[in-house]
Amino acid sequence: MSVPSPAVSTRRGEPTEKSGLKKIVAASMVGTVVEWYEFFLYATAASLVFGAFFFPNAGSQLDGIIAAFLTYAVGFIARPLGGIVFGQIGDKLGRKHTLQVTIILVGVATFLMGCLPGFDSIGYWAPALLVILRFIQGFAVGGEWGGAVLLVAEHSPNKSRGFWSSWPQAAVPVGNLLATLVLLTTSWILPEDQFMSWGWRIAFWLSAVIVVIGYYIRTHVSEAPIFLEARAQVEAEKAISYGVGEVVRKYPRGVLSAMGLRFAENILYYIIVSFSIVYLVTVHQYDTSQLLLALLIAHVVHFLVIPQVGRLSDRFGRKPVYLAGAILGATWAFFAFPMFDTLNPVLIVAAITIGLCFHALMYAGQPAIMAEMFPTRMRYSGVSLGYQVTSILAGSLAPIIATALLQRFESWVPVAIYLIIACAITAVAVITLKETRGASLFEVDAEDARKHGLEPVTVPTEK
User: Fold this and answer.
1) What is the pLDDT of residues 229-250, one digit of tens each?
2) CA–CA gap between residue 410 and residue 283 (Å, rounded)
3) Which pTM was predicted?
4) Class for domain 18-224+238-452, per CATH?
5) I need a labelling partner for 439 at 20 to 30 A (CA). Which of 318, 337, 414, 423 fits?
6) 2-29: buried (b, 16+ CB within 10 Å) or exposed (e) per residue?
């Protein structure tokens, strides 16, 4: 007789034991740290290095940075494609298998980025190869988020899903922190000319080590019981559909709501972690090492705040916490940029940290909210589509638009107005959303079955 995995409940509908849930959270977080370390490493390198290394003939310094951010945007364009492909695979075969594939893909692409020669060596082949590797990296990350957060959300108790599923979100600033820490260390150790010529490569090469660790940990997780039951139902009833096509046909409002929720959060984040670097370096020639240190401190605070905000969403509801983030996010630029202009290191750290705390109010609750929008048979596809498609319109363009606005108007005020518009869109999405705090995912599946004439789903009572 086989022994049930300790990572999942052995009784239908009973939440995973706390010790097992912690293992699931740890496995999800480690892999997410790895993938986002690599993804954000590119963002920081694009701000500091890639403009001069791959686009030396772009004209002004801002022109080179914009060109680097355009290659950065390629990763965002690839993410929805990755979300669609891996969402389909994840809804059919499982969350675990897709997470193993994505971590290998993003690791290989990142390592090879560290091996690329610059424009001076191979001309236009250098930025071309960078774009190809960036596309592969973005494709893999596109499938990562949905699997990582759902692995936790589908194991979590109804009453604390916001808290537990916020931990994979907290892994994102950890990945960013590690990327910043490695670049900060190399920039301190090496003279600037050596850092710009080859020192930045070390951070990309280190990805090989942590990818192996992350892959190993992800081989030791199990699928949630609710997913296994949904997959068995799909196999038993051949008429049941799943995946991207089905979620667009049956739950278009859910996809649009997810996109609206994501819009301001994504823009605010990349204005803070990417454009702030551009602003301080180009407008004030602020010291790179000091700036990376400021980001390092802010990422630590961001990591600590996210799970607590997830807990707040369980206590007070998803909507009020998220709406507070959208409203406060709209105010950030109006006090942050004047704080940047003082060139006071303490005020710069405070401005970035406050911005990331505002961001956490929106970001922490996303996995729970989006998981509660879609039935299990198409949940991976639904959350990945809503989350990743928005990245093209939001995060990929945010640093480009902000840098272009700065170049055109020589002022941060248009950037602040840009943020207000984004936050207004998200606020409307939140207001029109149904409150789902404490919702049972089995009940979501039962409602889906009733609405679309499927085999009835029994909703167990959670203890």
Assistant:
1) 766 666 555 545 566 788 888 8
2) 9
3) 0.81
4) mainly alpha
5) 423
6) eeeeebbbeeebebbeeebbebbbbbbb
